[in-house]
Write a structure and sequence with these properties.
Layout (H helix, E strand, L loop, with lengths): L1 E5 L5 H7 L1 H14 L8 H13 L4 H18 L7 H15 L8 E5 L5 E6 L6 H14 L4 E5 L5 H14 L3 E2 L7 H14 L4 E5 L7 H18 L6 E7 L4 H13 L4 E5 L9 H9 L3 E5 L7 E3 L2 H9 L1
Parallel strand pairs: 3-6, 3-7, 4-5, 4-6, 7-8, 8-9
Antiparallel strand pairs: 1-2, 9-10
């Protein structure tokens, strides 16, 4: 097996700026929970629970965090409110660590010998799926990798057209058969073309939504079966793209897609335009699927590898 690295560490200030709305909302709410209080008591914990839920962390993850803090209060007897932010930061970081979310610095991908590394991208329409594919392709190419795109979302003409525009913008080849073509056929041709070109990475776009979950499951399963005939073990990564600005709706989408296919990575986009960045914590905790990328801006390089340590630091800085 051959390995190659992906992406240098993105600038921390881009992440800080991208999470600014979430941070301001979260810290202002947190400050209000401890006004006039010198120690953490039941009232402070009740208020903290409300802060976390209204920050889109999610009910189950919030209760888990509160229980951990309650244990620390019971152990330490008297816990000052001036320590609450530090403790909360530690517990959120611990949750992300346990769920194996994110990377530190660069990621290593296991590329099969003589075959490309295949990424199948899924997600509903409007979450930034095509843009994420374009930005990924750009960053792979910038890292010196040969990339091929596959336009297998053939149920919307706009999806194919948008991916063609991105392929031209980034300067990478695309395999497409137009609207109405068989998605599995497009995936098959893409992998064959990528192998012929000795490509390093293939990124396959898929339909955002079919008219029911069974159809979606069948379509994605068919695409996977066809790809395996060309590249054994493909797809190596099934990346679900979620719109972070939708808060708990993103979590519901993650649950539905996890029933339809074996997702093993998440990309959460549009965090720069929302105060709902807490959804990253809840999705990571509840889905047990690693958050791999986050979108914190519109620029080509503003799709970042998710670094859990830097994320928590930016949230509480």
């Amino acid at each position: 097996m051959a390995f190659f690295g992906l992406f240098s560490r993105d600038k921390k200030e881009t992440l800080d700026k991208g999470l600014e709305k979430t941070k301001q909302s979260f810290l202002s709410k947190l400050a209000r929970t401890i006004v006039g209080k010198s120690r953490v008591d039941d009232e402070v914990l009740d208020n903290l629970e409300e802060v976390l839920i209204t920050s889109d962390v999610g009910v189950e993850t919030t209760l888990k965090i509160i229980e951990r803090i309650e244990s620390r209060v019971a152990r330490d007897k008297v816990l000052g409110t001036n320590e609450l932010q530090t403790i909360l930061k530690e517990e959120i970081a611990a949750l992300l660590e346990e769920n194996n979310s994110g990377a530190t610095g660069s990621i290593e991908f296991e590329k099969p010998v003589n075959d490309p590394y295949v990424i199948m991208v899924v997600g509903v329409n409007g979450v930034g799926k095509t843009t994420t594919i374009g930005k990924l392709a750009h960053q792979f190419k910038s890292a010196g990798k040969k990339v091929v795109l596959g336009a297998a979302d053939t149920f919307r003409a706009a999806a194919v057209d948008q991916l063609i525009i991105w392929s031209e913008r980034v300067g990478v080849p695309i395999v497409q058969q137009g609207m109405g073509a068989d998605p599995a056929s497009v995936a098959f041709d893409t992998l064959q073309s990528a192998k012929a070109q000795n490509a390093d990475v293939v990124i396959i776009d898929t339909a955002g939504r079919l008219h029911n979950k069974v159809n979606l499951m069948n379509e994605l399963s068919k695409i996977k079966r066809v790809m395996e005939k060309v590249v054994p073990g493909a797809p190596h990564e099934i990346l679900l793209v979620l719109d972070g600005s939708t808060g708990q709706n993103a979590f519901e989408q993650a649950k539905q897609f996890s029933l339809a296919t074996d997702i093993n990575a998440l990309a959460i986009t549009k965090l720069d335009g929302t105060a709902k960045g807490g959804v990253v914590i809840g999705i990571s905790d509840q889905m047990k699927i690693p958050v791999k990328y986050i979108g914190v801006g519109e620029g080509m390089n503003d799709l970042q590898l998710f670094d859990k340590h830097e994320f928590v630091d930016s949230l509480f800085n």
